[in-house]
Design goal:
heterodimer, A: alpha/beta, Peroxisomal Thiolase, Chain A, domain 1, 2 domains, 11-stranded mixed beta sheet, 15 strands, B: mainly alpha, Non-ribosomal Peptide Synthetase Peptidyl Carrier Protein, Chain A, 4 helices, globular
Chain lengths: ~400, ~80
């Protein structure tokens, strides 16, 4: 018997807000998240801008939690607490409860501060919590302990596709019968000199330092790279009968996933977008839909010159003629790029778009790139039709990872 | 002296493990009463070494079962 997966809780902490309702309201309002970094930021860094979390987790959590958790773990736990409460703190046998939370980079801020301690004070002063703060599975494990998950705790890592891959893995756990509820999502908090210098060296970051609010401008002619963001998104995925039996609120339905790889280049997208297009097609098939059902696309659209174009080609291949009708939103224009958190936050956006029948804006498009042959939202939200509709969320990562997810309205 | 060390240690345990300072009493066991696990105990030791300039080797840490044990050790070695 097929086990269907629904979404019964959401949580987010992002550059647009410290919780899901605030973040979503700010996204619908077209709020830019990019800011100028502080006076202590190295003036030699190519990027002087980033999209910082609106609410600092260190000011929300208990001091002892801050001491033991990397910022990427802190924001995952904050989003997970919100999502879990939003789902009604379900009463579930722990062996039927799983966690899949991903990060693209991991606890690098903690690694750097541990290195500084080693250098300045010696090995005897490195924190005994350092290892569990830097390990990539740290956020998943912290969230798993938070909810007491015993069906399995997992961490797929695929750079900026990690959050989306986590959701597909979580849904599979439910479909395959391993769990009835899985706390799933992605997190990232890696704004530090080393990471920013590295992405800067790749020429991946926007250097529109004099105008942080408009620096993330996917699909614009003058886009010059992404704006680094930070934060987390967590969804409560639940087997449908389980959710209905306990009278849970249902936001939307998980449709399916497509996961492929480019086999092309470690950091460049395949200009033909063939891996991404196959992922889109697979996700639509997995959801037992056809391309014409996809009314809305939350695109990966990071604001890099090559990536946005390659994805647009892939969307046209994957959706065919429906690419003329589906409303494409580039929400990184507001949130910045949350790397491993992006796929989760944007999946939540896609689900809320289906619920509210509103495709969120894509801000900062002053002159749309004529090479982008898509129907892109602009400064305001776009009304989506009533009835059964579906949305696609794309996420791609360095390494050539392509993940497409499809969600359905309820 | 011991009272000052107890007060200082209570502040450390509070900072490291989130235990209310007033709960840190001489007869309390770090593990059983204060929920200070082995990792947090490492942090307690580091902070004590920094605060009082004492050296607390690992071989000694296992003997520090209670807050009183730690206060006695620090008092004798400071």
């Amino acid at each position: 018997m097929t086990r269907s997966v629904v979404v019964t809780g959401i949580g987010m902490t992002t550059p647009l807000g410290g919780d899901a309702p605030t973040t979503w309201a700010a996204a619908l309002a077209g709020t830019p998240g990019g800011v100028r970094l502080g006076a202590d930021w190295d003036p030699e860094q190519p990027a002087q801008i980033a999209a910082l979390m609106r609410e600092n987790p260190a000011e929300i959590l208990k001091p002892v939690e801050v001491r033991r958790m990397d910022p990427s773990e802190q924001c995952a736990v904050i989003a997970a607490r919100e999502a879990w409460a939003d789902a009604g703190a379900p009463d579930i046998d722990p062996i039927r409860l799983g966690t899949v939370v991903a990060s693209g980079i991991g606890g690098i801020n903690s690694l750097i501060s541990a290195y500084e301690t080693l250098r300045d004070k010696g090995a005897a002063r490195v924190s005994p919590h350092m290892v569990t703060m830097i390990m990539p599975n740290g956020p998943a494990a912290m969230v798993g302990i938070e909810v007491g998950a015993r069906a399995g705790v997992h961490t797929p890592v695929s750079a900026c596709a990690s959050g989306a891959e986590a959701i597909s893995y979580a849904a599979k756990m439910i479909e395959d019968g391993r769990a009835d509820i899985v706390v799933a999502g992605g997190t990232e908090a890696c704004i530090n000199g080393v990471t920013m210098a590295g992405f800067g060296a790749m020429r991946a970051l926007s250097t529109r330092n004099d105008d942080p609010a408009t620096a993330s401008r996917a699909y614009d002619m003058d886009r010059d790279g992404f704006v680094m963001g930070e934060g987390a998104g967590i969804l409560i995925l639940e087997e449908e009968e389980h959710a209905r039996a306990r009278g849970a609120k249902i936001y939307g339905r998980y449709g399916g996933a497509g996961l492929t790889s480019d086999g092309h280049h470690i950091a460049q997208p395949d200009p033909e977008g063939s891996g991404a297009a196959r992922a889109i097609t697979m996700a639509i098939e997995d959801a037992e839909l056809s391309a014409s059902d996809i009314i809305h696309v939350n695109a990966h659209a990071t604001s890099t010159p090559q990536g946005d174009f390659a994805e647009s080609v892939a969307i046209r291949k994957g959706l065919g003629g429906q690419a003329d009708h589906a409303w494409v939103s580039a929400t990184k224009s507001m949130t910045g790029h949350l790397l491993g958190g992006a796929g989760a936050v944007e999946s939540i956006f896609a689900i809320l778009a289906l619920r509210d029948r509103l495709a969120p804006p894509s801000i900062n498009i002053f002159n749309i790139d004529p090479a982008i042959e898509l129907q892109v939202t602009k400064d305001g939200p776009v009304q989506l039709p009533a009835g059964d509709i579906a949305a696609l969320n794309n996420s791609f990562g360095f390494g050539g990872h392509d993940v497409a997810l499809v969600f359905k309205s309820v | 002296m011991s009272e000052d060390i107890l007060a200082g240690l209570a502040g450390i345990v509070n900072e490291v493990a989130g235990v209310p300072a007033e709960d840190v009493q001489l007869d309390k066991s770090f593990v059983d009463d204060l929920d200070v696990d082995s990792l947090s105990m490492v942090e307690v030791v580091m902070a004590c070494e920094d605060k009082w300039g004492v050296k607390i080797p690992d071989s000694e840490v296992k003997n520090l079962k209670t807050v009183g044990d730690a206060v006695t050790y620090i008092s004798a070695n400071v």
